[in-house]
Amino acid sequence: MANILEIQNLSKNFQGLKAVSNVSFTVSENSITGIIGSNGAGKTTVFNMISGVLLPSEGTITYCGNDITGTKAHKYSGLGIARTFQIMKPLRNMTVLENVLSGAMFGRKKISNTKEAREYAAEILKFTDLYDKKDMYPKEMGTPFKKRLEVARALATDPKLLLLDEVMAGLNPTETDEAIELFLKINNEGITILLIEHVMRAVANLCEKVVVMHHGEKVSEGTPSEVMNDPYVIEIYLGKEEQ
Ligand SMILES: Nc1ncnc2c1ncn2[C@@H]1O[C@H](COP(=O)(O)OP(=O)(O)OP(=O)(O)O)[C@@H](O)[C@H]1O
Ligand SMILES: [Mg+2]
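Above: query sequence and adenosine-5'-triphosphate SMILES. Below: predicted holo C-alpha cells.
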C-alpha cells in the first residue's frame, strides 16, 4: 500500500537539547499508526514538525509524494492534514457548533454559504456524537467531550491525514471504548490516522503499526504485539514503573 506520509531522518534541537534525533518512519494510506514512548520522548515534537508548527533542524517530511518540509502551519488544512493539541485549545467564547464551524471554514471542503457550513458542521457533530451539546460552551463540558470536540474540529477540515495527540488521556474505560469506536469509524471513512497514545489497550486495538520513541530516538517499530514483546521496549516501560 502507498505511503501517505514518509518521515526521513527527522531531528529537532532546542538550544542543545536533541528533542528528536534522526527519526524515520512511514505511515501507509488508510492505516492507523501509533507513536508511543515515555514522557519527554519527543512524540509531540514530531507532531509539531509534521504539522508545520516547528521547522525541523534536519530531515524531510514527504506527504502524498510531495516534500512538505517547512510548509507553514496555516497551509496544512488545505493540504488535508489536521491535528489535535495535547494541551486542548478550544475557542472559549464560541459554542461547540461554532468551534466546529471554524474548522469547516478553514478546511478543504468547498462551502459557499453559511447555511451549507452549518449543515456540514451539524453532520460532523452527529458523526462525533456531540450534536446534543452543540449550543454549549467548552468550559461547560468535561474532559472527554472537550477532547471529542478537538477531534470534531479537526475532522471538520475534511482531512486525509488526522494527527491525534493523546486524545484518550484521562478517559475512563467506557469513554476509552467510545473513543476507540469513533477512531475506527473515522478510519473507515478513508482517513489515515497517526496517533500518540499512552493508553496501551487503545494502541493494541487500533494500530496496525506502532513506532516507539525514547529520549528523542526511534527505538522500536512493528505491530502492537511485536513492540510490546521487544525486550528493549519492556525494559523502558518497566524502568518507568519502578521510578
Ligand atoms: N518548544 C520547546 N522548547 C524547548 N524544549 C522543548 C520544546 N518543546 C519540547 N521541548 C522538550 O523536548 C523534549 C521532548 O518533548 P515532547 O513534548 O516532544 O515529548 P513527548 O514525547 O510529547 O512527551 P509527553 O508524553 O510528556 O507529552 C522534552 O525534553 C521537552 O521539554
Ligand atoms: Mg506530548
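The chain is about 35% helix and 25% strand.
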